[in-house]
Amino acid sequence: MEQVISPEKKGLRNSRLFILVPVIAAFMVYPFLVSDYFIDIAFFFGIYALLGLSLNIVLGEVGLFDLGHAGFYAIGAYTTAILNTKFGIPILVLIPVAALAAALFAYVVFSPVIHLQGDYLLIVTLGMGEIIRQALINNPFDLTGGPNGVFGIDFPRIALPGIGEIFVCDSSIKYYFLIWAIVGLTIIGLKSLQNSRIGRAWNYIREDEVAANATGIDSRHYKLLAFVLGAGLAGVAGNVYACKLMVVSPESFTFWESCLMFCIVLIGGMGSIPGVLIGAAFISLFPEIFRPFAMYRMLIFGSAMILMMMFRPGGAWPRKRGAVEFRSLLEDSGRSDA
Amino acid sequence: MQVILEQLINGLTIGSFYALIALGYSMVYGVLKLINFAHGDLFTFGSYLGYTVLVFGAAFLTAHFGLWGAFVVATGVAALSIACVGVVMERIAYRPVYRAGRLPAVVSALGASIFLQNAIMVIWGPRFQAYPSEFIPDAKVMLGDIRISLLQVIILAMSFLLMGLLYFIVQKTTFGAAIRATAHDRKTASLMGININKVIFFVFTLGPALGALTGVMVGMYYRQISFTMGWNYGLKAFTASVLGGIGNIPGAMVGGLILGVLEMLGAAYISAAWKDVFVFVILILVLIFRPTGILGEKTAEKV
Amino acid sequence: MKKCVVLAGFLFLALAMGTARAADNTVVIGLQGPITGAWAYEGQMAKQSCEIAADLINKKGGILGGKKIVLKVEDDAGEPKSGALAAQKLAVQKDVAAVVSTYGSSVNEPSANIYEKFKKVNIGYGSTAVRLTQNNLKYFFRTCGRDDSQGRFFANVVPRKFKARRIAIMHDNTAFGKGLAEDTKAALDALVKAKKVQIVYFDAITPGEKDFKVTLTTLREAKPDVWYFTGYYAEAALLVAQARDIGIKCPFVGGNAAINDEFVKIAGLNIAKGCYMTNEPLPGDLPYPAAKQFLAAYKAKFGNIPSSPWPIYAADALNIIAYAADKTRSTDSTKIAAYLRDKVNGVPGITGPIGFTPQGDREGVPFYLYVVDDKGKIVVSK
């Protein structure tokens, strides 16, 4: 049968374009209008967006509770830092290396525990995050520099043999475009993944794992895949973070950081990509906007988190298809109307 | 041998703190399937309240109630006030949210945690506070060859007493049966005529009250408290409750004590710096072989 | 739509606050420090100290012919990422002459790189990691000492004084504590090679914890003659109290963050007395007139003097910025940096004469061995 695009669908596509084009244009123009401080805020917004997207695969798509995501982020950052400072490998080459290192770690650690349910998996991820952080502090094999961390990380550079250096990423504006280019590519990739076989299998597992297994989906395989992909993306975020700050140290990868990522996904809406962007914006912009309140700003931040959940428990921008599923997930997890 | 026994008692003391805090996590989790991340900060709050009572009421309390009376008053005030805070927190931060499910409640709980921690910082300042030393007994007790402090004995005795009491309430009384029934299956429990709101009220008073009590004991024992300490204790206590089997009340007690002893073993025989790594590795190993914790029951999968 | 308006409103508000300019008859000096987070007490004391220092200068008529100093505080929460943002925020403001920044070494590093890019003088007041001044930064200075100078002092003085052969070193796994412990170990290396001393214990505790008895029992079994703890007073007080409890009797020596009045208060007089520490001269022992005046003003406003050694370095950082700005008749950071590096030498400050090495380190930070006396006062050990 020939596929026909209905007029309504066309209209939908147009309206989406209508939103997308100005948003992208605004992102392109923004850094040329503001000072470096505001560019840097947008940069960290990008980092959190990438981290949120990476956790969204695990938490949003498959419904696995992961409160140790900062661990993967740390592995990406430290892999980059150590290989760059000790062996002088260029940062951009290290992007896939950092992703692979984090992904491999996720695979090795989660293979034996992937069968755990809900909160038990949550505590394993939490424990894993803490193990990584403590290990970094304790400076194993003199690699991680202990609590001081690793410093002196280079700028991302591109050099061609014969021509020499053609690009150095050494200003806030370049870092801004670097991170948002990565975020953009990731969004495109995840979008197509969402609609693929894998994405549907993930959602199926999230809704009803037993039924998914019964229809021949290897849930163990797909769950591990989600962890590996999520960890890999977090590793990329770690790479960019490391070269931006030029120093990595354990206090950037605390349990608290994992909690923030968790909040990004939930504030935005589970499984929703625009939701993740909103969540990341909230987490990264809010404390900056309330800077003038000094020691009261975290007080406001905490209350705002509660208020968000009170008024929009499904997230700021819940996924359309997911909205129905999301509710059913909540029903399943032991809730009843008391 | 003497050293090992001494270490064991030290480990048990830390473990009993963890156990008492873990009870708060486990009770709330059992009834609401909610991880109350703010529980650690309620513990800190209780510790600061006890401190305030002791510092500002020092002369009055010792004159009227004596040294031990002062201690009882401080813990009592802290426990009661924090029980109220717990109930208020449940009404404001959790009740409107958990109708929508358990995941939004996680965010809400984290928000409550940030709020409480920073509120404590704003009220008492960011400095460490020292419990007034005149209230703290420094006598020693000889147990054979082992020297332990009187305070340690009191703390251990009190912890076990509280745990025993709670165990009795939950396992032997009708109301305890109601709590367990709610934890097991809330919908059916409410159909059986159990007043779920009463059960929720109970866990949100008793859990925080136990936390506050522990807070005062921690303050007495270590003499010094800080506004960020709840995060640390909370993380460990939560780990303890999972280790024992979350939602399971005897499990939380066992988990806490085991965690304390494990920490002791790690610090004494491996390395103090690597002890947390050791604890979490053991935790993960336990969960691989017993996926629902030490005392957790294996739940049948719902099809 | 409504949300967009609200969000835009907030952004506008933030922009407006970010770009608000101070009046012309003022000199703006930035302070970046941990106002919130785990080190909030350090950050807030530093803020108070800088306020006092600025007040004192303003009362004397200000600098540059009557301009008043205005302090602009940014919170870095003791965390590198927030540090980078706070630094960025201060660095892009043209009216900020220079910045007092910041407390922890791993927070200071990214911040210092940002200030360097914007050519803004930044003076660390509690960042003692050696490496900070080895990156050829032109705008970074520090008024506090370095980890290795204190370690060398310990190695020179302590083993001889206590006739100690078995030395235990304990740190707290923070950047500062571990750095000092390792530098001390390195400084003791010569004595170890000559078989004069032996390091019988070297391990860490976890800061924020309360129970160290287990660790201490291990330390007791190592039978040290002297025990050096390089962490902070909060843990030091607990450590000593618990150590005496389980029967460790050897002398306790703390690093320069380990002992202060709070330490005595928490540990109790019985336990605290006879504890030693290696330290820069304490605020109260500083013989300098600037110190007496500063501490009197501080006490008058806040009721007590700073309970840790670092805040007065923050005050001195502000003072030296004001001094350099006054002397160069300019609020241009590049001129101030050149002046600080080349011309500042022996300028009287709260913590003694101030001068900088070409790398930006403080010149000649003296160390003393202190002891807690029978009345709980911290006095220089004879």
Please describe what this structure looks like.
The complex is a heterotrimer of chains A (338), B (303) and C (382). By secondary structure, chain A is mostly helical. Chain A is 71% helix and 4% strand. In chain A, the strands form two sheets. In chain A, strands 1-4 form a two-stranded antiparallel ribbon. Chain B is globular, with a radius of gyration of 19 Å. In chain B, helix 1 packs antiparallel against helix 8 and helix 2 (39-56) packs across helix 8 (196-222). With 303 residues, chain B is mainly α. Chain B has a single domain (2-289), classed as ABC transporter involved in vitamin B12 uptake, BtuC (Orthogonal Bundle). The model of chain C is unreliable at 18-22 (pLDDT under 50). Chain C is built from 14 helices and 14 strands. Chain C has a seven-stranded mixed β-sheet, with helices on both faces. Chain C has a five-stranded parallel β-sheet with strand order 2-1-3-4-5, with helices on both faces. In chain C, 45% of the residues lie in helices and 18% in strands. Chains A and B meet through helix 5, helix 10, helix 12 and helix 13 of A and helix 3, helix 4, helix 7, helix 8 and helix 9 of B.
Order of strands in the sheet with most strands of chain B? 1-4
Rg of chain C, nearest Å: 22 Å
Structure annotation, total helices of chain B: 11
The spatial strand order of the largest sheet of chain C comes to 7-6-8-9-10-13-14
Q: Which residues of chain C sit in consecutive blocks of at least 5 with pLDDT less than 50?
A: 18-22
CATH topology of the largest domain in chain C: Rossmann fold
The proportion of residues forming helix of chain C, as a percent range, comes to 40-55%
> What is the radius of gyration of chain B computed over CA atoms, rounded to a whole number of angstroms?
19 Å
